[in-house]
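#struct-queue
[09:14] JT: dropping the first one here, sequence first, then the structure tokens:
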Amino acid sequence: MFEQIYAIRQFFDAGGQVMWAILFVSIALWTLIIERYWYHWRIYPQEFGQLRKRWEGRTDCDPWQARKIQEQEISHLRHQLLGSVFLIRTFITLCPLLGLLGTVTGMIQVFDVLGFHGTGNPRAMASGVSMATIPTMSGLVVALSGLYFSIDLQRRGTAKTRVAADVLSQYLVKAEKK
């Protein structure tokens, strides 16, 4: 256990201070992704069931007013389903940029070593090169892994909104026939 923690600590030290920023953004990103899936799997079915019960018991007869209420309910559902997707995509965009920042700081360290020692200290240059490459790789890995799930959440939210609009439209048609 301590060996893995030590290896992770060395990985973060080799990547420089930017690795901690990538870690923070990664934790925030995955927390939001897990929260969104939790909402889709646990919360949304309950909310949609309550909405269906409210619409089954509707007795108002004004079709214009019912359509406006339907639009409001669908808009609210869309907002609930897609609420954090924009923030998730912002974090996905931020990760490669943080990796690029790590590349720049690592290259600055390499140039400092070259300016001070010339090419006579390859060990010091290797430290700067690893500081330049590890954050880039880490930022890209976090961004690519989050990208798949953000697209999936967007697709699920759009599909569920469409289904909810269809279900509420069926209730409206039934109410107008009465």
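[09:21] JT: and here's the second one, same format:
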Amino acid sequence: MRKLILFFLSLMSISGCSTHPQVESTHLIDPSLSHFENIYDYGSAQVENGELILRSTDNWFLTTKKRYRDFILTAEVLMPDVDEYSNSGIIFRGQVKTTDDGQEAMGYQAEVDPSDRKWSGGLYDQARRQWLHPVHPTRSEPDDHFEENYLSGWTDEMASAYRHLEWNKYRIECRGSDIKIYVNGVLTTHVRDSKDSEGFIGLQHHGSQLLKESGRTNNIVRFRNVTITELE
């Protein structure tokens, strides 16, 4: 019995001396969408069977109420099988831009691009500098905050990382000015950029012309398993 007591006391001592507190993750999608708000006057979101369902007539982001600094964000996205244009993305460290038409989201965006261009996992600076990686021939305006791109170009492996009409897993890592984006385990973006150090998360629907004209659409963007782990 004495040995048994000493064994449990030893376990309690080890646990109490741990210097590595457990980092907890937060699941952002719940039935009431309590972590999100709509800064626009259009766009709709609902949760069905644990999936976030996004519809919109115009370019739109459902944004978190909370702002985040350094974190690891993981999310899965499923794009629709439609003839009209469809596009999505994940804004991170996002900011609110006020225009004559109201408020809109601005900032870093991990692109979801099912077009023939195949730039899913690229880094787009929404409503600001446009394409940071890869470089667009006419729509890239990096400034002094864009300090380094660790990747030499846009490779076939990066272009093939996204799988259309399947669930695609995104991982975004922000540590100070170091930013990484992974799509299905493939590193598609790794840059050092100091433009924004914190901000909200935003999930995008780029808009449906069919919904605008008819009130109906099958152009629906789905997200699930959206989880964020804040880093010390």
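[09:30] RK: nice, looked through the second one.
[09:31] RK: The chain is about 10% helix and 45% strand.
[09:31] JT: good to know. The first strand starts at residue 25 and ends at 27.
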